[in-house]
Amino acid sequence: MKVTVRKKDSSVPVPINTEFIKLESAMKLMNIVPSGGSAKLEIQEGYVTVNGEVCTMRGKKLYPGDRFAYEGDEFVITDGTA
Length: 82
Description:
Strand order of the largest sheet: 1-7-6-3-4
Helix content: 10-25%
Order of helices and strands: EEHHEEEEE
Number of helices: 2
């Protein structure tokens, strides 16, 4: 008997109704940070990863399927138009 084990995806979905969302805006949308200034600092200090790599660009465009992580929580951008 063949058994397949899959890791449960514990990412929090971030639905968007546009083509993309900027990283800073996604963090504010999900209430991860209290303000844009806080998001800017956390991103520029290297505390945020995008698709597994540290990202210091607060204006980084995230598209459906992209993932970002902050303080151990992972978020995935989803297409909210469907």
